[in-house]
Amino acid sequence: MRLNIHILWVFMVALSLGACRGEDTVSPDGSIPPDRGPAVDRFVTDLTIGPPVKVVVATFNVRNFFDSQDDPDTFDDVESASAVSAKVRALGTALRALDADIVALQEIETLALLERLNGEELGSLGYTEMRLLEGNDLRGIDVALLSRHPIISTTSHARDIFDGVDVQDTDRHGFSRDCLEVVVEPSPARRLVLLINHLRAADYSDPQDALFARHAQAARVRQIADSTLTWEPNANLAVLGDLNDVPESRTLSLLTLGDPPLKDLHDSLSMSQRYTYIYKGDQTVLDYILASPGLVADLEAGSARTNHSSVFSTTSDHFPVLATFMLR
Fold first, then answer.
1. Is a pLDDT exceeding 80 seen at residue 36?
2. What pLDDT, on a 0 to 100 scale, did the predictor assign at position 48?
3. E strands, the chain, where?
4. What pLDDT, in 10s, does the model give residues 142-178?
5. pTM to 2 decimals?
6. Which option is the CATH number for 53-327: 3.40.710.10, 3.40.250.10, 3.60.10.10, 3.20.20.80?
7. With contact defined as beta carbons under 8 Å apart, do 287 and 320 qualify?
8. DSSP for 122-175?
């Protein structure tokens, strides 16, 4: 049975990693703290993992979900009250059809708007947890999360500053919106680390700048993932969202290649099965769930898919992707 990284976190304040492996922990003065080993042994022995927990995870770019208020700090769209109400109803229909336990969302303007959607349309789905932190987008669109399971922590990376990774790129970069790091606890012994993203889109007025920025953002997301995976390769971690690039791109390579690698859960599907966006009549993929080896091990066979129901195309230009895990 895998020992989840997040179980180990329980020990980290008082214990070294060596003690968690059943080895003696040495104090700074060289002595062995009394009873440290037996106390750890008792805790591990008494810990009940319980049966596997089924969790459906999805990501969906809902497209321009703005309210009717003008935000003077952004170039936001200001919708009529009736248009906002219609969007809330349409998204309610779509998310009820999706019926996922955890949903990463992109292009929502405010937490208040997310709370309205949940309150008016999603009560039957049991989303007790909502997260949206203001990011960097000039129009004010943010990434967010809905969850039926408890959220243990939420970390914004909107203020991160990092170097470019392309040879000609000498700029410093930040996230176009945010990389929202959320730790969800489906059960007391199992946690999911989710990195929710909406990377820099193509910009045909300055394509090189947009590409450099997207590559830098992807590399930074991978660094954030590695801050968990380097310490515990079996962690249940996923990078998900609108990554604004195709599967064979350098953007995806920067995210997936590494030690350990992240797996694109939908890469075995044909384009007609997995496309999430249509550009000038061509089917393409922009939305992903990239999973760590520990999470891939718990993937329910055949569950990774794109939902092409018409309820999604009536409210967005993207289709959601989802996957089911039996967390052990």
1. no
2. 62
3. 53-65, 102-108, 129-132, 142-147, 151-156, 162-163, 172-173, 179-187, 190-198, 237-242, 263-264, 277-279, 282-284, 287-291, 305-306, 321-327
4. 999 999 999 999 999 999 999 999 999 999 999 999 9
5. 0.86
6. 3.60.10.10
7. yes
8. -GGGT--EEEE-----TT--EEEEEESS-EEEEEE-TT--EE--STT---EE--
